[in-house]
Amino acid sequence: xxxxxxxxxxxxxxxxxxxxxxxxxxxxxxLVVWRDASGMAxxxxxxxxxxxxxxxxxxxxxxxxxxxxxxxxYDRGGYCQYIPAHxxxxxxxxxxxxxxxxxxxxxxxxxTLSGNPAPLPAGRDQAVPLRSLxxxxxxxxAVTGLGLVKLTPFVxxxxxxxVVHHVTDTLHAVSTGDDRLLIGVQAVSETRTALHVxxxxxxxxxxxxxxxxxxxxxxxxRRAIEQPDLRPPAxxxxxxxxx
Length: 243
Ligand code: FES
What we know:
The chain is mainly beta. Helices cover 12% and strands 35% of the residues. The protein contains three helices and 17 strands. The site of FE2/S2 (inorganic) cluster has 8 residues, from loops.
């Protein structure tokens, strides 16, 4: 999977509340994902320009993030605006954290390491978060395994084929009948992958029982990808669609 010009999911939107931050990795690069008080999500390099402390250990204050170590504060553009040890200093604009383009779509937070990415595919209006699954395998192995476990319909009861649709290198859909799951694939490292799973549809339809229904599939899928010996026989009938 290439990094150039791609958008990559770095978490489910609901997992980062306003005023909070979390650390993650993309192709081994450490990133901080944080959401300011207005609700806007940000993805930055997870390293304070002062002495290298992880900013994901810091504190979100309004629309700033403050480093845990010496309290330097960075605005939404990544510029340092305040140094507690020198409160009257006009901070040079050269003190800046590298930041990355960030969008939210399909119930996920997306970023790109490219300055000129291809457009993020248009998303559905509503998505219900399911689970982020962390697997000990490459992103390619995870994508190859998406059809291994048959998906049982929730809205339209009965039997239907399981279809895997590859939207982009990092966005996939698994559907059956009228139900559709979005799968964002995050290459954490060469041997570690996160699958961010959301249900396409309205919360009043899927929240609660619908989430429980598809969570079983998600957990079976993780086992099937990581442990080939335990794959269920039903998986062999899954269809695969390519763009
Ligand atoms: S290391 Fe971040 S403020 Fe010093």
